[in-house]
Amino acid sequence: xxxxxxxxxxxxxxxxxxxxxxxxxxxxxxxxxxxxxxxxxxxxxxxxxxxxxxxxxxxxxxxxxxxxxxxxxxxxxxxxxxxxxxxxxxxxxxxxxxxxxxxxxxxxxxxxxxxxxxxxxxxxxxxxxxxxxxxxxxxxxxxxxxxxxxxxxxxxxxxxxxxxxxxxxxxxxxxxxxxxxxxxxxxxxxxxxxxxxxxxxxxxxxxxxxxxxxxxxxxxxxxxxxxxxxxxxxxxxxxxxxxxxxxxxxxxxxxxxxxxxxxxxxxxxxxxxxxxxxxxxxxxxxxxxxxxx
Amino acid sequence: xxxxxxxxxxxxxxxxxxxxxxxxxxxxxxxxxxxxxxxxxxxxxxxxxxxxxxxxxxxxxxxxxxxxxxxxxxxxxxxxxxxxxxxxxxxxxxxxxxxxxxxxxxxxxxxxxxxxxxxxxxxxxxxxxxxxxxxxxxxxxxxxxxxxxxxxxxxxxxxxxxxxxxxxxxxxxxxxxxxxxxxxxxxxxxxxxxxxxxxxxxxxxxxxxxxxxxxxxxxxxxxxxxxxxxxxxxxxxxxxxxxxxxxxxxx
Lengths: 293, 251
Prior knowledge:
The structure holds two protein chains of two kinds. Chain A is mostly helical. Helices cover 74% and strands 0% of the residues of chain A. Chain B is globular. Classes of the chains: A mainly alpha, B alpha/beta.
């Protein structure tokens, strides 16, 4: 009889644990699923209409027939500012990571990693405010421009690129470095053309992650790239971009602009999803290739 | 005994403050195979890594004494140039995983100079032939290096080292990760290579030393105990420690 009690208790306990963990899984999945669902439900029809990605944003309007097309300039602006930021952060981040992990200057490597970790934790709005503050004092002409926007975004991207590149370089076995050195290949050639090439899928993954993070950031752009609904004219002017368009239109009193915000949300979401899947495939490919040794 | 190619003169090598080998002096003869034997941790790998300045690539290491290549102290030369003249094969096959067979063998040529395509082709074929691998890979020279078996990968690493046209080839336990058949192939190869190169091979396997080496050095606790013609060392060891080791009383 006692034996049976214990058995029943154990079974009950294991069932409770199973239910609890199941509930936690739902709690984790719910936000993602509901975001994706809502975006499709409210933004789907808007996103997939002709010219949504190629025209300027609409004026506010609340009649049924008013137009809901137009995130063209925001897509264009996001591409330009993120492209510029990648142009700054990828070389700087990759070279800093190479220095930290390949050239073992005492303590400096750890200092670079630590700095990158701290920078990752700095709220992104502070990056924007800081850069705006600096330029307002020293070069107010371009305080609100693509230049400062790109700087603010690269401040967010650099630590991500540094950390993922360091990680990717660490995956390359030390025997590869020794093999290169023993052939009389100079350190910089071995690093750039053998070690870095071997870690390229990992580095590319990091770059994509950083790009996606930057593409979705509104806070650092509030003070730097600013807000516009117009097509790009000059790097030294403020520009349109997706996150701030979503931020502005989502709070709009006009129903057509709110719809556009949903369409833009869905567009960003799909973009990030695609890049995520691609980067995961790349990691997988790298693992397979590295598994050969 | 052939003239000396590589002369180690009162060499002491440190990891941090700990000396892994102490006051080692040894003269490796030209165009011959010299083996270094001894129990684990006796410093044989450290010694061989000092011969092409690989020891110093590990952080906080230090070397005292001299290593003379044709009477030039390699510690006074540029380490990169030293390693082009003194090649090395490691314990585990370490081909460049991202490269094809062809690109592995031609790595030293391509990265260290700008040779013509024909020159590179010729050198790749020659090195693969020397490493007794050509016949097995000539049909798939552009296949990934990792598609080869372990023993083939090790011969690929030998070909890769030979393509740099070294004068001396160092081998740090080149067969320890291989099966007996692959080991036999590498041993045959070692015997052939000594007609052109000076070879120094570290092995924990006494039988292997007896099979391939013309000269053998026995090391114990970081010191060189005895160095001489292999036959003499195995049959009439001068030192009682050597005798104890080769008769299997310890190690």
